[in-house]
Known about the structure:
Helix content is 37%, strand content 26%. The chain is built from 11 helices and 14 strands. The strands form 2 sheets. A 9-stranded mixed sheet has the order 6-5-1-9-10-11-12-13-14, with helices on both faces. The protein has a 5-stranded mixed sheet with strand order 3-8-7-2-4. The two termini are 35 Å apart.
Amino acid sequence: MAKGNTKSPDKKLIAGIGSALVDILLQETDEFLQASGAAKGGMTLIDSSTFIDMTLEKTSAQTSVVPGGSACNTILGIGKLGGAARFIGKCGNDELGALFESTLKKHNVDPRLFTSDSPTGRVLSIVTPDAQRSMFTFLGASSETKPEEMLTSHFEDAALVHLEGYLLFNEQLLLAALKAAKHHNALISLDLASYTVVETSLHILTDVIHDYVDIVIANEDEARAFTGFDNEDKALQSLAKTADTAILKMGKRGSMVSHRDSVTRIERMGSGVAIDTTGAGDLWAAGFLYGFINDYSIEHSGRIASACGYEVCQVLGAQIPDDGWQRIKSLL
């Protein structure tokens, strides 16, 4: 078993590994979503971007294009909070790849990007009136990241390495990243990403969390898919048996954090109506991990996390505007 590490007082860098994707955000009706064939609140992998193009031809709604990917959203948030941040992934030698890299640098993130002649991956995120987002994902170049590219040098100065659950679709790459990170005694956090990911990956997920993961992050649907429990307290208890820190996000009802057998309840921040939940979990993770690595209490880290999650739900997409970051930073 590779776990058992503790926070290093000399290291503060958080490195993220995941898919370098560009989000195409579209606000549409439930009827449009149903016609597209998407599972509401879920993520569907597709083999070609042609489906995305065909779906976009059927809407008259405006779209917005921003860098995305679960781990990337989290790392961008940590950079905006003032934390030391790095992102590791693969994008295409194209215009979207250049947009992706420039946005990382703009957010004070160290880009460790591999490149490919394949197109940069993209995600069509359909946002319905209830603020739920349902995704079609074309991984493109991001799916070509190779296990041998996960060099230990990428993690030499990392206090924590954050992984998105979507990496479970590439078991060899995931294990290579975990071993490279643990070579330098970095803590590991894993966001389960989507209940569909959990259901597909149960055959390896239990062992991965038990053997490597120090912080596991799940929402209600993901926790239910992983633990089998509808009851939130039981689901959290089950998660806590696999990782030193287990987090259950409950949307409007806040969150619960089990850390070394002590449970902390975190209240929701803000009272506004959500416009779009895209990136809510990713930015929640940004706030919590930033606080955790900088030695804030679990409660304080949770409050920052809730503020990040709230602010991103007030806009379309996963990019919090500057005035939102100012409100968040007032909590620091």
